[in-house]
Design brief:
heterodimer; A: alpha+beta; three-stranded antiparallel beta sheet; 7 helices; B: mainly alpha; Butyryl-CoA Dehydrogenase, subunit A, domain 3; 8 helices; 5 strands; about 10% strand; disordered C terminus
Chain lengths: ~210, ~220
């Protein structure tokens, strides 16, 4: 894979988003990070095989999302009734049982945002693998920046564990396939999001467009 | 301050919030991604304080009102965030009680206090110590999202526990208020500009770079 390309012109500079110190942005060896000389915050990182990793992990995430939605998270047997939980039923239950706003918020944080982050990553990074940009890739990349903090699948995973402990006193509860797929999904999404530095992604977009 | 490190704002340069490109702020928009360029986030302190005040107000109904109602064999129990945590504690499930206490009570409170403190420091009402404040900001940005865990638990329990006359759970108004607290504090952390803290140091004439001497 090609190393991190730099757009024409220069000198390239980088500003610490934390303390506003101005640096000259030197190219880095893969796997290392540049830190601010003033406050120590990370300025940019050169991730190894970034585009391949992001595309691979995002694609895996999309496949895992299909698995997560097809199999239950938790299966509960109580009072001779079996109820199952999957990702969309938690949001659906809130919508139908008295708190529609909360249901929509939950759906946004655990279903819509992860889907759009993974899809957006593939849309932007896939064509970049071949040195091209997809139409509107700049807008998608901007959108990715805004939505990424609202991806809360790891928080949902903790909530599933807490619920299991809460219910284990009153019922027989066990994990379904969906739970294990969701654990893998959390790992893959984290790897995809951390797979490429923001500065590298935008440098690559700028180089590919010119 | 002649020998201090160069700061972008001093040279009229702004790092784009979205793509990281460094460009002259007079351009108005980033030449690479088209986002608005600012030396500092506009009205950062006012926005953060307004969002924090709203969050602090909502924090009261979030803790007083029930987050869910459990109907078990005709008995109605209203659960608040604190009562849910106390139940775990009494059952001897200490680790999970501590997780709930941290995520639902401690983090929102600390976040409200920390961001208000940062706003005071950034507006010059307090004397800042940069590394400490920086760590506080990083902490609030990183941990805020975990407060959402109790809301997700309510969603999961409402979905699972629908056992007819035996036991049903419905969401309460406290859950919506608490979700509001989390979302508002997240927006507040996003609208705060940590560079304002270093601006204060520059005004006060304090050298902000402890790392500079160690690594010339």
């Amino acid at each position: 894979m090609h190393p991190w390309p730099k757009p024409l012109g220069g000198p390239h500079r980088s500003v610490c988003h934390f303390c506003d110190t101005l640096h000259v942005a030197e190219p880095l060896p893969e796997g290392t990070a540049a830190r601010c000389v003033c406050c120590g915050a990370v300025l940019y990182q050169n991730r190894p095989a970034s585009l391949v990793r992001v595309t691979a992990f995002s694609t895996t995430s999309l496949i895992l999302m299909v698995v997560v939605h097809s199999f239950p998270f938790l299966v509960m047997d109580a009072a001779s009734i079996r109820t199952t939980l999957n990702l969309s039923s938690a949001a659906g239950a809130l919508i139908h049982r008295g708190s529609p706003i909360l249901g929509v918020v939950l759906a946004l944080l655990t279903i819509v945002t992860p889907l759009s982050v993974a899809g957006g990553m593939i849309y932007v990074c896939g064509p970049l693998l071949f040195g091209r940009t997809a139409p509107g890739a700049v807008h998608v990349a901007k959108w990715l920046n805004k939505t990424e903090p609202w991806n809360m699948i790891e928080v949902f995973l903790l909530a599933v564990l807490v619920s299991l402990l809460k219910l284990s006193k009153v019922a027989d509860v066990h994990f379904g396939m969906g739970f294990w797929a969701f654990g893998l999904l959390m790992f893959c999404m984290a790897a995809a999001v951390a797979g490429i530095d923001r500065n590298e992604l935008w440098d690559r977009l700028e180089v590919a467009k010119s | 301050m002649n020998d201090s490190l160069p700061r972008a704002a001093g040279q009229g340069l702004a790092g784009c919030h979205t793509c990281g490109k460094v460009a002259a702020v007079t351009l108005g928009r980033c030449p690479r991604c088209g986002s608005h360029l600012h030396l500092r986030k506009p009205n950062s302190i006012q926005r953060t304080l307004a969002l924090m005040a709203a969050a602090a107000l909502l924090y009261i109904p979030a803790n007083v009102l029930p987050i869910m109602t459990v109907v078990e064999l005709g008995d109605v129990t209203e659960n608040t965030i604190i009562s849910g945590m106390m139940t775990f504690w009494r059952q001897g499930a200490y680790p999970i009680a501590i997780v709930i206490f941290t995520a639902s009570i401690l983090i929102p409170l600390l976040k409200i206090i920390a961001l208000s403190w940062l706003c005071l420091a950034a507006s010059g009402k307090l004397n800042p110590s940069p590394n400490m404040l920086g760590k506080i900001y990083w902490f609030t940005e990183l941990l805020g999202r975990w407060s959402m865990v109790d809301i997700f638990v309510v969603g999961i329990l409402v979905a699972l526990v629908q056992l007819g006359n035996y036991m049903t759970i419905t969401p309460g108004p406290g859950a919506l208020a608490f979700a509001g607290v989390v979302v508002l504090t997240m927006f507040a952390a996003l609208s705060f500009d940590p560079r304002l803290l270093w601006d204060r140091l520059e005004i006060l004439g304090i050298d902000p770079s402890p790392l500079k001497k160690a690594d010339p």
